[in-house]
Amino acid sequence: MQIFGRGSQLGLVLLLAILLIGLTVALTITALWPQALLAGIVIACCAAIIVIIGMVRVVGRRWVLWLAVPALALAGLGAVMLAEDLGVSRTGELTEVVIVDHTVDVQTSHDSNSPEGRKAYTHKYTVEHPDGAPIEKPMIYRGEDGYDDFDTGDTITAFIDPEGNSPTEPAENVNIGADIAVLGVGLVAVIGVYGMCSLLLLLRDTRRA
Q1: Cα–Cα distance list, 183 to 28, 64, 173, 178, 188 (Å)
Q2: 134: left (phi over 0), alpha (psi -120 to 50) or beta
Q3: Dihedral angle at the C-alpha atoms of 23, 24, 30, 36, nearest 10 degrees?
Q4: CA distance 178 to 169
Q5: The overall pTM is greater than 0.85
């Protein structure tokens, strides 16, 4: 029997191992090098895609996608969020900064489904030390509204990387406890999906016997 053939319990176990290894690698890379966030996201997505394709092949039912995709997405999101916050808190120093400028860049992309185009908003908050010393990395917010509680002239606490490698992040945005909770719920959901698939394969083998 092929390892990833239909009905293979070993295939399910190996797919779970692939997922855990992929998330661990993505988390480690992003935590050690916060500027490599995109690489961590790509690794997590690749691991999830491999697992989804493998599960459909092993279980032989496409409906498993309705359960596996949300669970894998939640686990991947939690891993990337946790890695990013760990990286920022590890390399950054809590520092009081003053917001001196706020600009918004709007980019419009056109496609057949949206004649008016889709707009992508990027808010850039230039910050400096209270004594006027400049800070290289601005705060970046991607979304339409920006930070609700911040405005030009406000003094806030942020994580600043002295070497300028990691992004500048408001301290209130770094919540490792919440990240662990999201990752935990995602992993529990993934294990539940795997358990259900394993039970389904066992019942199938029992009926054949």
Answers
A1: 14, 21, 17, 9, 9
A2: beta
A3: -70
A4: 16
A5: no
